[in-house]
Amino acid sequence: MGWVVSLNDVAVALAHLPQQAKLTVLGEHVWQVEVAGRLAVFVLLPNDTGLEVWWLGQRYELHVEREQVHALRQHFLVKQQAASAGYVVMAHMPGLVTQVKVQPGYEVKRGEGMVVIEAMKMENELRAPRDGIVSDLDARVGQQVEKGHIFCHIVSDGD
Amino acid sequence: MFGKVVIANRGEIAVRIIQTCKRLGIQTVAVYSQADRSALHVRLADEAFEIGPAPAAQSYLNADKILTVAKTSGARAIHPGYGFLSENDEFAEAVEHAGLVWVGPPPTAMARMGDKLVARQVAQKAEVRVVPGTGEMDSADAALVAANDMGFPLLLKASAGGGGKGMRVVKSAGELPSAFERAQSEALRSFGNPALYLEKFVRRAKHIEIQVFGDTHGNHVWLGERECSIQRRHQKLIEESPSVALSEQVRQQMGQAAVALARGCGYVNAGTVEFLFDVDTEAFYFLEMNARLQVEHPVTEMVTGLDLVAWQLRVAAAEVLPLQQEDVQCRGVAIECRLYAEDPLAFLPDTGRLKVFLPPHGEGLRLDSGVVQGDVVNAYYDPLLAKFIVHGADRTQAIARMRGGLERFAVAGVTTNLAYHRAVMADADFQQGRHLTDFVDAHKMDVSLSQEVAQTLAQGAAYLYQQRQQRLEEAFSKAQDGWPQEGPH
């Protein structure tokens, strides 16, 4: 039974976990690995759920698991993603809410402007990801939001 | 030369100015907002004064507070850096009125260049071609009438604009009303002036700019060009000098046009004359003049071997320009990548603590950084963290050095656009110099983790993962050993 090492959704299958590795410490949490003449510099940091890898400025959740465990986790992940796709309007950056164009119960069309947020002097209009009714609205002018803040859900009869 | 200078800015440019001041034996006074109490520029300056809450309008744009700091500290001059108050001619005037030296152009020249519509007139007077365009548009309806005459696509621009704010590409009449509204509100918010105008959109163009310098004795020189075609949201991402697109003849014409324009408005100190270069006709059009030190000035420094901040201070102290035109020499190729705290796909900003910030070292590499490891990146200011600059004997070497450097740059805790820059360095069109101003939209960069790199990372990460598991297990069993198994004997 093999192993799967995954960095977000990029999975690498390994027959065995490596018993050795050509690693150089470049700094605290910073490593350089060499495999078959190829070099990669990365950061490995512990977080709340395990470990994360940072490579070229981006974060990747690290999972080292048995094949079956990996398959099982993928199964639930796919279901979860399908359940939430397009159903929420979320802040993709931290910022200040400068305009709210909808109210709870409003019927929106796909692509319609809903909320405008401003960060670092940049305005960003969030549009409806699909047709539906605005519910659970959590957006008001002057509100400071974090990245990932959910402004509202868009529900439809089909849900 | 001045004994003491106030630096009315933050981030990498404040740090950059402090470094030159230290080299010239000038005392430095930093100003900072409550969000920047422990920022790098505050730690490096000889003195530092808090000037207000985090929002820029209440701190870095608070002219009165900054003037008070200058008086309290006994400074002789104010260096504004770029952004914030740097292009505010009323502030420059207030500085001079307070008996201080403004390290920048005369307020009159700033006022003329600061208004893009006036700047276009100045250019025309100096016989420099401008992009065909309109005067000020009062309303979206008026703009629509003019736009239908000009034809689409076109550019909607803020008269007081800069840094891409209040600017929109409009592809069709249907897009105009909402673009007008958005650009107007952005212009009002960013510059306190909602005036907009329309400009023809040159489809196959490069953005090329000339660094100019003037002194108070009537001398003007130009220090080569910079190509800044790679922009997102009309903000530059990658700059280089020289531009691969210019023949020596066009380069000379452009340089002379820039100097003519600087002379025409009585320009003193550092300035940048921006041109749009039509690659099909090799015609160049004046876009605007930036009356300040430019973010991308290091690429000029790398090819000329000059310190432009030192030049600014010398000129402000009424010294003669250190070089004449025939003594200016450009050597090799320099490229700058702006390291932004933003994701490399949608270019949306990220915030947080820089848990790791470990830049690479090597021949021909330079980093102008406003942050160090452990610093917190907040949402109040521009997401520019640092500028990574390389120099090479030729463009191929410079690109290779940049790519290698980016791959060795370790940042964690805040998402940065390193992967975008690396993808551009590997792009065939960029390598062959065919990149145009539409590059970011036209070339979707693949910034995803490839299976090949993932396999390399997996070996290292899985090995370290096991070691960590082992340590955790050992620690756990040791902790268990510590428990008394039986009662006391």
What features would you describe in this structure?
The complex is a heterodimer of chains A (159) and B (489). With 159 residues, chain A is mostly beta strands. Chain A has two domains: 3-84, no CATH class; 88-155, OB fold (Dihydrolipoamide Acetyltransferase, E2P) (Beta Barrel), CATH 2.40.50. Chain A is built from one helix and 15 strands, in the order E-E-E-E-E-E-E-H-E-E-E-E-E-E-E-E. In chain A, the strands form three sheets. A seven-stranded antiparallel beta sheet of chain A has the order 2-1-7-6-5-4-3. Chain A has a four-stranded antiparallel beta sheet with strand order 8-15-13-10, with no helix packed on it. Chain B is an alpha+beta fold and 489 residues long. Chain B contains 16 helices and 21 strands. In chain B, the strands form five sheets. An eight-stranded antiparallel beta sheet of chain B has the order 14-13-10-11-12-15-20-18. Chain B has a five-stranded parallel beta sheet with strand order 3-2-1-4-5. In chain B, strand 11 and strand 12 (235-241) form a beta hairpin. The longest helix of chain B has 31 residues, at 451-481. The model of chain B has no long low-confidence stretch (mean pLDDT 94).
Poorly predicted runs of chain B: none
Averaged pLDDT of chain B, please?
94
Number of separate helices of chain B: 16
| Biggest β-sheet description of chain A | 7 strands, antiparallel
Count of extended strands of chain B: 21
Count of alpha/pi helices of chain A: 1
Fraction in beta strands of chain A: over 45%
What key phrases describe this protein's structure?
A: 159 residues, mainly beta, OB fold (Dihydrolipoamide Acetyltransferase, E2P), four-stranded antiparallel sheet, 1 helix, B: 489 residues, Rossmann fold, Dna Ligase, domain 1, D-amino Acid Aminotransferase, Chain A, domain 1, 3 domains, eight-stranded antiparallel sheet, five-stranded parallel sheet, 16 helices
